[in-house]
Specification:
With 141 residues, this protein is α/β, with parallel strands linked by helices. The chain has 5 helices and 5 strands. It is globular.
Length: 141
């Protein structure tokens, strides 16, 4: 079974770009997608519409945007710190914010890595390859 990435981002165009990048890179990753932090917390806690593990497999890694409606990425990271069962699950922030204060805060709240959304496809491919390596490391543990 391929490692699953949970992409938490409110930008549908970025979702499609990630899907295409994974496909063109020929990486063996499965992508699940939610629109905001509230849905991410429901997905990870297996509540609401995400109880079916066959349709919504537990991820090997979470790709998390910071700037979203309802519940933002910082709030998801804060929530994660109260969920002992998510301690080992890598959270990678992938956001448009290049502010040092956002990076510092995300890392303080437990993000494992912080990337600014790239301006080129080559940069995005490099990030996706890094994410694939992190997923592989997670599945070997």
């Amino acid at each position: 079974m391929n490692p699953t990435i949970l992409l938490v981002d409110d930008d549908d165009c970025f979702k499609r770009l990630i899907e295409r990048t994974i496909s063109h890179s020929r990486l063996k990753l499965s992508l699940q997608y939610v629109w905001n932090g509230q849905e991410a917390m429901s997905y990870l806690s297996r509540s609401d519409n995400f109880k079916d593990e066959a349709r919504h497999p537990f991820p090997s890694l979470v790709l998390l945007d910071l700037k979203m409606p309802c519940v933002n990425g910082f709030e998801v990271l804060q929530w994660r710190s109260t969920q002992p069962e998510l301690k080992e699950l890598p959270f990678v922030v992938l956001t448009s914010s290049d502010l040092q204060q956002d990076k510092d805060r995300a890392l303080e709240l437990g993000a494992d890595h912080y990337f600014v959304k790239p301006m080129s496809l080559d940069e995005l491919k490099a990030i996706v390859v890094t994410v694939d390596a992190l997923c592989g490391k997670q599945t070997r543990n």
